[in-house]
Design brief:
single chain; 267 residues; Rossmann fold; six-stranded mixed beta sheet; four-stranded antiparallel beta sheet; 10 helices; 10 strands; globular; binds adenosine-5'-triphosphate; binds magnesium ion
Length: 267
């Protein structure tokens, strides 16, 4: 009988990271469950993208550990990270498609880099992936001619083309209208189910979070403020969590705004 797989496929322990004097991550302990969707929320600048980059070894912690299955990925030298990264799809916050390449070539790019597939196997896989994200037959399009939502979907096809076990999504819905965001949410859920993916989604889109999360985490100023089931978040009376979920600024945050020109300064 195969040994039972541990519940968490990725784990961080006591993660600290500073950039010069800016102490961004202040001791992050997180577990990401296998074949589940964990959503990490938090205000802009709280360290979400920095946390995510530690999970694929793009950043190294100042202190703490990052586990990928049984391996300490934070200790793997850059040159040996390839086999790990092949198991992880990454949808970057900036979506970054190569505008000099067709949609098909963009999606095929990781296959060229990391697989031994033949030309025809590659084009078959690309076709399947584009179908999965609802962009069938767009191989020959130039990415520059696509809308923001279409670009996100192509980037998503590229992130999953190597059939990774884990997909990291950094702000998958930023810049999309609510309908497009809903479509991306649906895609994330479907891929998770169809491929039994482990999904780690960083976002401040509250609606998306509740739509897809099995587990939710709220980061605030480099610390975990709260984590638990969507139900825990829905029913919490923690004032700062409620403010975040409802999108309400504190009086202090509003008072920090400069008066708009021509406006009487308040108090
Ligand atoms: N490579 C870097 N060098 C220096 N500072 C950085 C670097 N990357 C991030 N930071 C700083 O770390 C802090 C957290 O950044 P991060 O990108 O993780 O925020 P975020 O939570 O993802 O915000 P957003 O929701 O706006 O994407 C910010 O103060 C940012 O300026
Ligand atoms: Mg970010």
């Amino acid at each position: 009988m195969a040994p039972e797989l541990p519940d968490a496929i990725m784990r961080t322990e006591g993660l600290h990271k500073s950039f010069q004097r800016n102490h961004v991550l202040k001791g992050i302990d997180l577990e990401f469950k296998r074949a589940a969707t964990t959503v990490v929320m938090g205000p802009s600048g709280c360290g979400k993208s920095v946390m995510l980059k530690h999970l694929i070894g793009l950043l190294k912690p100042d202190a703490g550990k990052v586990w990928f299955d049984q391996d300490r990925i934070d200790q793997v030298p850059e040159a040996q990270l390839g086999p790990y990264r092949r198991r992880i799809g990454f949808l970057f916050q900036q979506g970054a498609l190569f505008d000099s390449m067709s949609v098909g070539a963009n999606v095929a790019f990781p296959l060229r880099e990391h697989s031994e597939m033949s030309e025809s196997e590659r084009s078959e896989r690309v076709e399947t992936m584009l179908e999965m994200v609802g962009m069938p037959g767009t191989q020959d399009r130039n990415p520059a001619t696509l809308s923001g939502g279409q670009r996100k979907r192509v980037a998503l096809a590229r992130a999953i083309v190597l059939q990774p076990e884990i997909v990291l999504y950094d702000e998958p819905t930023t810049g999309l209208d609510p309908i497009r965001s809903d479509i991306i949410g649906e895609l994330i859920s479907r891929l998770q189910e169809a491929l039994q993916l482990t999904s780690i989604v960083v976002t401040h889109d509250v609606q998306l979070s509740f739509r897809i999360a099995d587990r939710m985490v709220l980061l605030q100023e480099g610390r975990i403020h709260m984590q638990g089931s969507p139900e825990t978040f829905r029913t919490t009376e923690d004032p700062s969590v409620r403010r975040f979920l409802e999108g309400r600024a504190t009086p202090e945050e509003l008072a920090g705004l400069q008066p708009v020109e021509g406006e009487e300064p308040t108090a």
